[in-house]
Each structure stands twice: as structure tokens, then as C-alpha cells.
Amino acid sequence: MTKEKTKAVKLRAFKIISSNITKLTEPGSGILKLLSEKLSDSSTAQERRRLRNKADNDEDLLSSFEWQADNSYLFGMMLRIMPGESGGQIDEKLFSHKKITISDIEAGKEGTFQPKEMFYFALNDDFIVTNLSGTYSISGFQTYINWLLESLRGKHLFDFNPVMTLRKGIPFSDVRSVVVGDSINISVGEGIGERLTMKGLFAMIIRSIIDSTGNLDDVQLEELISAELRLKPKGKPKGMQEEAYKRFMGTLIKPATDDDSVRLILRDGSSFDGKEIAKTRIIDKIETTSTGRLDEGQLKQEMERFLNELNEEQHVATCY
After folding, report:
1. Is 298 left (phi over 0), alpha (psi -120 to 50) or beta?
2. Which of 217, 298, 279 is nearest to 8 (CA)?
3. Is 127 exposed, middle or buried (0-12, 13-18, 19+ CB in 10 A)?
4. d(CA 290, CA 293)
5. Which of 310, 313, 297 is nearest to 120 (CA)?
6. Are 77 and 98 in contact (CB under 8 A)?
7. What are the residues whose beta carbons fall under 8 Å from the beta carbon of 239, sequence distance 6 or more?
8. What band does 96 get if pLDDT is binned at 50, 70 and 90?
9. Which of 118, 164, 125 is nearest to 141 (CA)?
10. Percentage with pLDDT > 90 across the chain
11. Helix/strand/coil for 277
């Protein structure tokens, strides 16, 4: 018998928060009910295609999904697609189907769409678990889900915030500041340009203060400065539960696109970087098919296990 080939998979965890919840400690976002309405039997992949920019052809697509455990969670696959003539392709006829699986993707040919990026996820009313690479922000998936549910959610938006964890015995109320470094990307508003790095933003500020003559260009300014943003929470308000405060801290570090760009400074002066505080799970051996694709059933079960553990941890936290 030939030895099964496997891959290591890193799972990231995010907390789902709905703006229609007035109390941060209130459990459940209500997202599953809306998704079950949207992803009805009559739903097709065509209806789930989201054009990212009218001047471009890149799209986001929830290509396939499965309801599990009496609709207590949803497992799915996301694709970022673009027109292309080489590599794996999606025949446009497939968009009339309810789902598009990885096995439907064909060898490249003209008149088809090419998958650029893909990842899997599992979500329930409280959490998302995904193998989305750490080099990508969860914000794109958040935007897609809010777009998909636009006709059902009213004015309420869903936020996906990183689940935070510190070493056992250290409460989040001991955090004295959140330091965000150079590599973070910041949205500076429409008409100014694309997202800037922290150094790029500070270069704009410095130019407006000391270099109105324009003697230094932006590249020179960025080479001359090092920038970081230090956020100092006033402290956990009296009566706020630890779980609610953790959600607040998760919101603060959410913009980071790189784990190393965020550090938490504690009361005693010690610190943790993003890799230490973001809740993740390494699955050492997920079996792969003969073509190198992940065993989706095995991945799904590991994601379900992670979701169950997150729910149990939340339950324990809210009891104290």
C-alpha cells in the first residue's frame, strides 16, 4: 500500500458580532438564520457572484456549501475568480448550478473564469473557523457576507473579529496598550488612493506639517521614518465581563494584515505579538487526494471540532 500524502493546515478563529446586538455579552449573532434563507434550494452560484470593482473583472464567490449537524453550522468554500485563459477554469455554464465544487474546475480554455484564490470556512452563530492564509485579512470575507445578506440584514452589519487569547492566568484587563507597526494597511478614504502602510500615512502627515515645499518625495520620507501607532485602552470598565473585553481587544487588532505588526503591552511591561495572541489551530496531517487537494470531509470535521471548542470556552467564560 502507498503511504497517504498529507498537508499541514493552519486554522484561524474569528468572533462574529452583529451591530443589532446592543449588549456585547449577548450570545449569538443571528447570521445562520439569514444564511439559511439566502442559501435556499433555488439559490444558484450566479446569484452569489460579487464584482469587487466595476472597473475590474475580479469577483468573489461562495462556490459551494453544506449545512451540518441540523443546520448548527455551515461549511463552505470561497473563490476569488477572474477571466483567464490558463490554469484551472470555471465554465460559465456552471454559474447556473446551485454549487460549484473543486472537481468542477477544468483545464484552462478561452471564455472561462479562473480561480485566483480559494479557502474553506465553517461558521456558526458565534464563530468562524477558516484556513484563509495569514497574509490575507478577514475583511474581504466579511464584506462578501454582508453583501450576500444585504436584502435580509437591514441596516445591521456583521463584523468578524479575531478571537484573542493570552497565556493562562493573564486577564485581558492587564493589557495597557496595543502597538501597531509599519506593515499595517490603513484605509485613508475615497479619492486619496488605495490603502496605505502606517509609514505611508505618517509620510503624508509629515509632508503636510514640515515639507510644504515638496522637497522630499514620499519614497524618501518613508525611508527616513519608522512609524507605529500605540492605542491605550482606559481599562476594562467596571462590570464588563472578560469575554466582552476580549471582543473589544479583537476589534482593535483586526486591521492588521501581518501577525508581527501587532503587539500587546501588559501592565508589567511584558508583551505579546500577534502570533501569540490570535487564536489558531495547527492540524498537522490533513490527507490529500492524488492531485494534492485537501480531503474536504476531514477538514470539515477538524473545523467542526474547533468550533465546538470555541463555543465551550465561551460558555465557560460567560459563567464567571
Report:
1. alpha
2. 298
3. buried
4. 8
5. 297
6. no
7. none
8. confident
9. 118
10. 31
11. helix
At 182, list the grid cell.
Answer: 509599519
The percent helix, strand, coil of the chain (3-state, each to 5) is 30, 30, 40
Helical H runs in 185-291?
Answer: 198-210, 218-224, 242-253, 274-277
Entry pTM: 0.74
Under DSSP, is residue 153 helix (H, G, I), strand (E, B) or coil? helix
Which comes out higher in pLDDT, residue 8 or 229? 8
Amino acid making up residue 181: G
Mean model confidence pLDDT for the chain: 77
Region for 269 from its dihedrals, namely left if φ exceeds 0, alpha if ψ lies in -120 to 50, beta otherwise: left
d(C-alpha 305, C-alpha 130), whole Å: 12
* Contact in structure between 186 and 202 (CB atoms under 8 Å): no
Answer whether residue 314 shows pLDDT above 60. yes
Give residue 308's pLDDT: 94
Supply 104's cell numbers: 468542477
Q: Which amino acid would we find at residue 187? A: S
For residue 32, report the phi and psi dihedrals to the nearest 5 degrees. -65, -40
Pick 132 or 195 by higher pLDDT: 132
CB 11 within 8 A of CB 131: yes
